[in-house]
Write the structure tokens for this entry.
Amino acid sequence: MSHGIGEILEAELSDRLITWTLSHGAKRHAVTPAMLAWIRHRASQLAGEVVILRAADGPAFCSGFDLSALTRGTGDQLPDASLVAATDAMLAADATFIAAVGGAAIGAGVELVATCDLRVVSEDATFAVPVGRVGVVYHAAGLRRLTRVFGDAFARGATLCGDKFTATDPRLRSAFDAIVPVGQVDAVARAYGERILRQDAASVRGNRNCLRALANDETDATFLAQHERRRRAAYDWAEAER
């Protein structure tokens, strides 16, 4: 995909292990509605892959929305609708997402990181959601996601005070699966992806989907019944292998 002012580059590292690279160097890899629309569309096509979300070279992972590319929206649609649609599509996708973060993650970049299933970050990574500076009221699902992943102190400090947090801040301790030296993020993220792909695919899918649902308070009776059917099918298979 290429739109001149920003793109997401997809590459295959190995069978079912792919990278999505944010590439918008002129804007420190800020995301545009077109880039987010690509994520929404491509996520719907996935079938069991592991996707590493990373950025091209530069001082930032993602500097947030490219404000110059935003519009007021049409009808009832707000300017952040493309971000909401992209993250919803990631959560619905049959894929496991790993964020590989070096440098600064800001605004929409932080939400993309929070939407991933695992997070590998470098020691120099920073996180900020400066919505107060631009007069934005953040969408509720996004605030819930930020609170779940990064914690209450982050959500309050980032959105109410405009604070920036470092990866090594003890208040973010549970947010990351690995904090690694600068320059090692991609290798460690790939190692996580390879480990995931060595697991039973149905087990990964069932457990991942339940973890997502629990995190987003979406475990209604219908979901729980579907999850129980998957569990029973898995045990039936295990018994047949004995």
Summary: The longest helix spans residues 221-241.
